[in-house]
Specification:
- The complex is a heterodimer of chains A (about 450) and B (about 210).
- Chain A has 12 helices and 19 strands.
- Chain A has about 450 residues and is an alpha/beta fold.
- Among the domains of chain A are: about 5-100 and about 225-300 and about 400-435, FAD/NAD(P)-binding domain (3-Layer(bba) Sandwich), CATH 3.50.50.60; about 125-220, Guanine Nucleotide Dissociation Inhibitor, domain 1 (Orthogonal Bundle), CATH 1.10.405.
- In chain A, strands 1, 2, 10, 11, 12, 13 and 19 form a 7-stranded mixed beta sheet that branches. In chain A, strands 8-7-15-16-17-14-18 form a 7-stranded mixed beta sheet. In chain A, strands 5-9-6 form a 3-stranded antiparallel beta sheet.
- In chain A, helix 1 (about 15-25) packs parallel to helix 9.
- Chain B has about 210 residues and is α/β, with parallel strands linked by helices.
- Chain B has one domain: P-loop containing nucleotide triphosphate hydrolases (Rossmann fold), CATH 3.40.50.300.
- Chain B contains 5 helices and 6 strands, in the order E-H-E-E-H-E-H-E-H-E-H.
- Chain B has helices spanning about 20-30, 70-75, 90-105, 130-140, 155-165, and strands at about 5-10, 45-50, 55-60, 80-85, 110-120, 145.
- Chain B has a 6-stranded mixed beta sheet, sandwiched between helices.
- The radius of gyration of chain B is 17 Å and the shape is globular.
- The relative contact order of chain B is 0.20.
- Classes of the chains: A alpha/beta (about 450), B alpha/beta (about 210).
- The interface of A and B includes residues 39, 224, 251 and 445 of A.
Chain lengths: ~450, ~210
Amino acid sequence: MDEEYDVIVLGTGLTECILSGLLSVEGKKVLHMDRNDYYGGDSASLNLTQLYRKFRPDQSPPAELGRDRDYAVDLIPKFIIASGELTKILVHTDVTRYLEFKQIAGSFVYRDGKISKVPSNEMEAVRSPLMGLFEKRRAKKFFEFLQGWKDEDPATHQGIDLDKDTMEKVYQKFGLEPGTQDFIGHAMGLYLTDEYKNKPARPAYERIILYTSSMARYGKSPYIYPLYGLGELPQSFARLSAIYGGTYMLDKAIDEIVTDSDGKFVGVRSGNETVKAKQVVGDPSYFGAGKATEGKQRVIEEGKVVRAICILKHPIPGTDDSDSAQIIIPQNQVGRKNAIDIYVAMVSSTHNVCAKDIYIAIVSTIVETDKPELEIRPGLELLGTIHDKFVTVSPLYTPTEPGTDDNIFITRSYDATTHFETVADDVQDVWKRMIGKDLVLKKRDVNVEA
Amino acid sequence: MSKQFQFKLVLLGESAVGKSSLVLRFVKDQFDDYRESTIGAAFLTQTVSLEDGTSVKFEIWDTAGQERYKAPMYYRNANCAVVVYDITQSASLEKARSWIRELQRQADPSIIIALCGNKSDLSARRQVSQEEAKKYAEEEGLMWGETSAKSGEGVQDIFTDIAKKLPKSAPPSARTAGGRTATGARQGVDLNKQANATGGQGEQCNC
């Protein structure tokens, strides 16, 4: 280990693997290490043996669940937005050659005690049971306004300035009821709270358009999902890094981030060996995970997410027996006034992540109280009989410094959002801090056949 | 029109046994003495035409230097594997045995495995006898052959033998070839519009 690298990457989670791949393609000499003997870190997908080893080390998986190798259970529930940033990165880097994707069958929202399909355009809005007759007309006008908006054509603006007027004002202009605002903002805009309403409307407009254009792409839902689980994503970017010369070292203890007297990064120590590099980038677990290390607090906890991985023997009731689904439970619908939405992500054997007739649903939200499991109860109650359940509470860490002074760059924990857009944001942010330039992805048409 | 079938082939073996050289000889009929490691090639493809009029297109995955730390994705849906050892290094056969055990545990049970003793041009320094390797291959039900990526001897034969043995009765499932469908039987969604738009056989992008 006496070679010197441009970059050492610590952890093989998705964010780190995307960065590792992009850095290697850029021509950087990369050493990529992980303390685990598998790829994926927190964004791995586990087989039954690994799942039990993690959650119930004293038990072995019950035989009735079927073959170990049929399982790839995600630890972090997220779906890929068909027209979103992660899709652009996947296409730009060509790692799609290693992966196969399927649609998520349905996108649902909880309203007044039951779940309904999220309408995604004016046509679906008029058929949706979520709204009464007059509200449907108003929603139709609202969607037509969004679809018809052209920056350069003031006639399409109807007196609204997306950069100045708040989303609240836009809702008021069309006279939309609070329940309608709930599903538009939370199930289509994918906002976890109502804060967006008091801000200029453009980001919300863009997110709703992203939802509808992603929906239009494949038809059933705006989400796609890789066969064999989300853990395939970091693996495919790790391969990209390797074929561009990246060196891999798994199952390796990372004992110290070595710095010089000015606190600048020197290398990484494993046992009595130290590997040197110009820069280091890694997930928060390698940098103290909220505690001070080497005399410095490098990451702080911003909050906690509770996630319940539930094994079901039936599809989720009320989803038309969908083989996969996302259900958003807006905060207002379950009286979580100060909290964020609860959401449910469900996949099944159609996605090669579990045995036949098994369904894996993950219910998650941000923790607000000292009884996290109680907070996700409205989500758990939608699932019907839960065959088995694994609950985790994970801290969300964020770096205290940008890393530009000491060459130590730290990624963020996987948040409570339902998709990978914030992961793509983090990749772009870290890239800019490390390289000093924006990450420019090749423009390519990402239209697809269904 | 001849029928074409596409299969994913993975290479395994200790570093420096000549895995990449073997593929380079097979795909491009080239050899480079000072070849270090493959950069930038996700996988290579080469087609073998058989006497019965069918042809087999291999999508060949190299380890890309990840010998010790392969991802499960590497084996996923592999139809065949070439496990390479160096006839001048007996330790490399031991390593090949451990890859074969791993394949038998992790890969699809129907995978066809060929054990390949490379560097046959260096037989003066031979440490692994043909008898020993052949006996082991027979016990494990593997195909076996010796090759020289340098001279080209035996290279075409081992890939042709694999091509003959691969099942042509049923076309490869929609999951062969690392996610890309070889036939029109697509079940998922393709993010690359330009790839395989017509679903025609063998019209893949050859990355």
